[in-house]
Amino acid sequence: xxxxxxxxxxxxxxxxxxxxxxxxxxxxxxxxxxxxxxxxxxxxxxxxxxxxxxxxxxxxxxxxxxxxxxxxxxxxxxxxxxxxxxxxxxxxxxxxxxxxxxxxxxxxxxxxxxxxxxxxxxxxxxxxxxxxxxxxxxxxxxxxxxxxxxxxxxxxxxxxxxxxxxxxxxxxxxxxxxxxxxxxxxxxxxxxxxxxxxxxxxxxxxxxxxxxxx
Length: 214
Description:
With 214 residues, the chain is an alpha+beta fold. It contains six helices and five strands, in the order βαααββββααα. The protein has helices at 46-53, 58-66, 70-86, 158-165, 168-175, 180-198, and strands at 34-38, 99-101, 107-109, 122-128, 133-139. It has a three-stranded antiparallel beta sheet with strand order 1-5-4, with helices on one face. The protein has a two-stranded antiparallel sheet with strand order 2-3.
């Protein structure tokens, strides 16, 4: 699902409806995940980018300005704020969200202790490459997401990286793939799953619970 357009006028904080953002589709169960994405290269309208920038906190603006890819960093913050606002039925202004980081440096929503206007079971995670920013959302369950470029170049060979970070069975599975392009694709499939899993504490070289040959 692509990023919704920014509000044409700033909403009002304090729990009032942020009418410019349409509500998100309903998450039916804790096993359901919605992924919203945007492609930075497709957003070049200065007025639109300015509206997104106005949603950021002062700290986020400062952090984005310090990044080499300022536009990408700004859009990453805007994506999580607009997406999360939609899953509160727009009861929370995107600018009103505050965040904290857990011990694994994963961002989480910092809910006001006296705010009972929305359920507090909303979880998210965000990842980006130079060509895409993605935000995953779930209810009642923690979520991790990782995005990688399919043609990303590595400084070391796939086999050496697999031996370093993957389990022996996973490394052997990759070694048995003779086609280099197919091997690279399978490597990044495993890599994204492991990076996603590592958001909750396990090390990259922990086994991933799947059969790679299926």
